[in-house]
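Please discuss these two lines.
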Amino acid sequence: MASTADIAASLTNDEILRYSRHLIMPEVGMEGQLKLKRARVLCIGAGGLGSPLALYLGAAGVGTIGIVDFDVVDFTNLQRQIIHGTADVGRKKLDSAAETLREINPNVEIRKFETRLTSANALELFQDFDIIVDGTDNFPTRYLVNDACVLTGKPNVYGSIFRFEGQASVFATKEGPCYRCLYPEPPPAGLVPSCAEGGVLGILPGLVGVIQATEAIKLILGSGEPLIGRLLLVDALAMRFRELKLRKNPDCPVCGANPTVTELIDYNQFCGIRGEETVPAPNVLDMIPEELKRRLDAGDDIFILDVREPHEYQICNLGGYLIPLNDLPKRVSELDSSRNIVVHCKMGGRSARAADFLRQSGFGKVHNLAGGINAWAERVDPKMPKY
C-alpha cells in the first residue's frame, strides 16, 4: 500500500483543492482520488447518455476519458445532450465534448475516437481502458459492446432510455451476468421504436447517465454495491425506481460455461439496424417532394396518407389523411384503392413500410414520399418547421 506521502505527491495542490469535497470523505480520501486519477474510462457515444456521463466523470477527476463518436451536433440534440451548446451545431460531437470537458477539468486527458464502433475495432479500442460505459441508442451496438466487454474482461456499465423510462446495470463482470443473460435475443425489427420515432424526455438521459457515472466511479473506487446482478428500472413520469434481480445464465452463449460466441460477429445481421429513423434507399416507387409539389399544383388527384402519430401531425402536416402506421391494418378499409396514394411520415422509414403493406393488400397506385415531410420542408417549403 502506498504511503500517505507518496499519494499526496501524486496530486497537485490545485487538484487537492479541486477535489477537496472528495478528499474529506473517508470512502474516497487521497487514495480513492488517486484511483480516479489513474482510471481510464471509455464512453461509447457523446449523446444523451454520454453527455452527463462524461461531464461528471471529468468533474470527478477520472484521469483518462475516451469517447467514441462519429456524429455532428444537430439542433434536435440540444434538448438533452447538455455537453453541447447552440454554437456547436454542425460541429463534430467529439470536438464539442472535448472542449467542454477541458473547460470543466483541464487535468483530464481526453482521447477522441472519431469512428463508428464495429466488430473490427472494438476489441482493440477496449484494451486500453478499465471500464466501458455504453451510451448508445441501438441494439446492434449494445450487443457488440456487451460481447466485446466479455471477451476483453472489461465491465460494461449499461444504460438505455426511451420516452419516460430508463434502465441501468453493470454487465460483464466475472461474477455477474452480461447483457445477453438478460436479453438473449433482440426484439423483432420494428417492434421497439427509436427515440426519433417515439421521443424521449430531455431530462431522462440526465438521470440515467448520472447513474452510469456513479456506477463507474464506484467500480473505480471499489466501494459500495454496484448494480451487478441488478437491473434498475427508472420511471420518470411516476418518479419510481424499481429493481430486478438478475442471474448469470450458465448457458449464455457469451459468458456461460461453454460459450459459443468466442469472437465478434456481424451485429447488424444478428439483430437488424435500429436507432434513428433513417431515409430508405431510393426506390422506383418513391416520389420526390418536388414531383409531389408539381402534381399537386397541376391539380392531379392525389390522396396524401400521413402515417405519423397525432402529436406529430400537430407539429406540421401536408393536410393529409392521418392513419398512424400501427393502426393501418385495421383501418385500411378507409382508403380507396382506385386513387393515387402518396404515403409520408417524418423521414420516409415508416411510410416505406406502410406503402409495402398497402401494395401487398392490393393497392396498385401507391408511392412513398422520399425523405418524408422533413425533405418537403427542406426542398419545397422552407417555412415549415422540422423536428
Notes: The CA atoms of residues 74 and 89 lie 5 Å apart. The chain is about 35% helix and 15% strand.
